[in-house]
Amino acid sequence: MEYTVKSGDPEKQRSACVVVGVYEGRKLSPGARRLDEAAQGGLSAILRRGDLEGKTGQTLLLHNPAGLLCERLLLVGCGKEKDFHEGRYRETFTKMAKTLAATGATEAVVYLTELEVKGRDIAWKLRHAVESVEMALYKFDRLKSHKTEKKRPLRKLILTVGKRSELAAGETAVRQGLAISAGMHLARDLGNLPGNICTPSYLADQARELEHQYGVKTTVLEREDMEKLGMGALLSVARGSRQPPKLITIEYKGGKDDEPPVALVGKGLTFDAGGISIKPAAAMDEMKYDMCGGATVLAVIKACAELKLPINVVGVIPSSENLPDGDANKPGDIVTSMSGQTIEILNTDAEGRLILCDALTYTERFHPVAVVDIATLTGACVIALGAHASGLLANNDQLARDLLNAGKYAHDRAWQLPLWEDYQKQLDSNFADMANIGGREGGTITAACFLARYTKKFKWAHLDIAGTAWLGGKQKGGTGRPVPLLTTWLIQRVEAGAAK
Ligand code: BES
Ligand code: MN
Ligand code: ZN
Known about the structure:
- The protein has helices at residues 30-38, 42-48, 86-101, 122-137, 167-192, 200-214, 223-229, 232-238, 292-307, 352-363, 379-385, 397-409, 443-452, 483-499; strands spanning 2-6, 18-23, 27-28, 59-63, 72-77, 107-110, 156-160, 217-221, 246-253, 262-266, 268-272, 312-322, 333-336, 342-345, 370-375, 390-394, 414-416, 434-435, 460-464, 470-471, 477-478.
- The chain has 500 residues and is of the alpha/beta class.
- Helix 3 crosses helix 4, helix 6 (200-214) runs parallel beside helix 9 (292-307) and helix 10 (352-363) packs parallel to helix 13.
């Protein structure tokens, strides 16, 4: 979709469609009121007939509205004005996009951007307008032989701002919204692709694709390279699979040469059957999404490159399958990680931390200023936080705060859990330096405690995205989270640096 930013009065628009909001109780938004005046009360007369109360989710499309210049007028219900918060604002755009796409209009001038959202400025509103529309129009049908190719003539949205002085901020916001959406699109596609297509080799090819598109530097370590580095934990997981493992590194250099990078480390487990500690059959197909952390890394680097952010970012993606096999890890097996620490594998299904710990040790060589790992790591996180917040754990409070704040701005929120020393003893092993599981209690925390043993050399945060990276049930599909959170965090780092 093409987006432009413009300021101008709604009653003067000759567009194919003008979009305005109506709050519950048929309360007209400012833009709707101006149209009503221009139409000499024609709009409120129509509403009095009872076709649109203004509840969220309601829409009313009027053709050739009397007294107005536009071909169509789309009214979108916004719910109670006093309850109109960030989530509602985004939902209004979702509804608008889906409704417009079903009409014959090729473009629309949108006044929903004028709706008041507490504490949010025009930049926030335009960015979230773009993201909500892009999210709503996403579809994944490349594996269907009959494409649901409905002619969608809608090509262009003109997002309005109240004053000309807001145009520049609006345009920057649109660019950011588009870059984040492009990243989310990639993350969702990769997540939705099945395990037989999206293998570790496929992910590596995607990273090479970014190299072609944006000139980032992609390096892929093969099994033999990992053997030389002593990545015994990662390799032990890959032994159960016929797909060769890959350790993918992508370096985005937008900053100064000598500026240390931010590192993003993403779990790229392309299918998790659990290994010998095999998972139950129900919903096991969803374990194709176990590479969403890795997809997030590719996506955030794509967004950085699109925005040409003046910052250095290195992405590291350990990638493997986790399957039962004659050569697979067995409960009780002990492996030596690249760090030298030994691990007793009491449950082969706790494989994410095994591939991540070696990737984290490998990340040391980039001397990162901060490291964030992203992983669909624990079912316990889904129980604790559901699908609304990613779990956040960190060994540095400032880093945690920055990520939480970025998540709030991005409407892609995280919630912090404690990383207290007290939990560490749950990982005690009788035979090795640590066990790979810490029991049912505080499962998300003990998983992070395990990773904490490999991240002592840097500022580090861990995002458990098991509940947020995809949705199950009828709306099954990747969400593109936490691409908005992380990209926003990087944008805000750049902004903070520039202010210094
Ligand atoms: N990929 C899973 C985590 C997961 C499970 C994410 C369900 C989303 C939904 C991870 O590899 C795993 O299996 N974790 C185990 C750890 C346990 C054995 C300590 C889990 O959460 O059950
Ligand atoms: Mn697992
Ligand atoms: Zn897993």
